[in-house]
Write a structure and sequence with these properties.
The longest helix has 36 residues, at 228-263. It is globular, with a radius of gyration of 19 Å. Helix 3 (57-78) packs parallel to helix 7 (138-166) and helix 10 (208-222) packs antiparallel against helix 11 (228-263). It has eleven helices and no strands. The protein has helices at residues 3-24, 27-50, 57-78, 80-87, 90-95, 100-130, 138-166, 169-185, 198-204, 208-222, 228-263. It has one domain. The chain is mostly helical.
Length: 271
């Protein structure tokens, strides 16, 4: 293995380790990470149960699982570089030989590992309490889950560069973005439905979570042979989204780094 590849892997591992340990090392953060999607899932599952729509309880449980990762993308991925800048760490990233791409990938892997217990807790509690009907096509479902996470964290990488520019406004943007995305992406209900206007469906399709949720529902609960081609199409779209977002993230951070070196804006911290 050449020196550059070795440095990249070591950087990604180090950043993933720090991210994972930081999430497990703060008890309050663990409670929030686990509790928020768990109670949301319980509420929606009880609503479906009381309405007699037991077949859709699985949708609520799946929504709670993916909500864990969506929250991590917003608050741990997208905002991280801005927080590092305030703490004086981002300058170290730029001046060190560590590749920025490896730092981003390490942040993503650490975020996934740190969020996994929350997702598992939601799945286990939901299954034990509500026993939702499930008809999975496991190989396709696993592939869908992996590609959906890849596209979501690629979105987080892209947002991290934008948030780095806008500073404290990023947190306000997160607050404004979180609930509308949950509604538009149909975390707890299918968006691609006749009752949802086509214009809303088109806007929602820009969000990787929307397409991923639909594909996961079809492979875990519906498993209709007629939907196979549709699921494969959704996986292709998610893969394209992830690739585009990764390229945009890399280009934007490179441009930001070059601009910061010229005008000295990297070291400017907004209090």
């Amino acid at each position: 293995m050449n020196l550059r590849a070795n440095l990249w892997l070591k950087t990604a591992y180090a950043r993933a380790w720090v991210r994972t340990m930081s999430m497990y090392g703060e008890p309050l953060w663990v409670i929030v990470t686990v509790g928020f999607p768990l109670f949301s899932m319980m509420g929606m599952s009880l609503l479906y149960s009381s309405a007699g729509a037991t077949a859709r309880i699985g949708f609520a449980i799946l929504g709670g699982i993916m909500l864990s990762f969506w929250g991590n993308v917003l608050w741990s991925m997208a905002s991280q570089f801005n927080w590092d800048k305030q703490a004086g760490l981002f300058e170290i990233y730029i001046t060190s030989p560590a590749p920025i791409s490896a730092i981003l990938v390490g942040m993503s892997l650490g975020g996934i590992l740190g969020t996994a217990p929350s997702a598992v807790m939601v799945a286990v509690v939901g299954w034990l309490v509500f026993h939702p009907p499930i008809n999975p096509a496991w190989p396709t479902a696993i592939a869908t889950f992996v590609i959906t996470l890849a596209s979501l964290y690629a979105l987080g990488m892209t947002l991290s560069s934008l948030y780095l520019v806008y500073g404290r406004e990023a947190e306000s943007f997160n607050e404004a973005l979180q609930e509308p995305v949950q509604l538009l992406s149909g975390v707890y209900f299918p968006v691609y439905s006749p009752v949802i206007p086509l214009a809303v469906q088109a806007v929602a399709s820009v969000i990787p979570l929307t397409i991923g949720m639909d594909a996961l529902r079809r492979t875990l609960f519906l498993n209709n042979p007629a939907d196979v081609n549709l699921v494969y199409t959704e996986l292709l779209v998610l893969g394209i989204m992830a690739a585009i977002l990764l390229v945009v993230s890399s280009k934007s951070l490179k441009a930001l780094e070059e601009r910061g070196r010229r005008v000295g804006s990297i070291a400017v911290r907004m209090r």
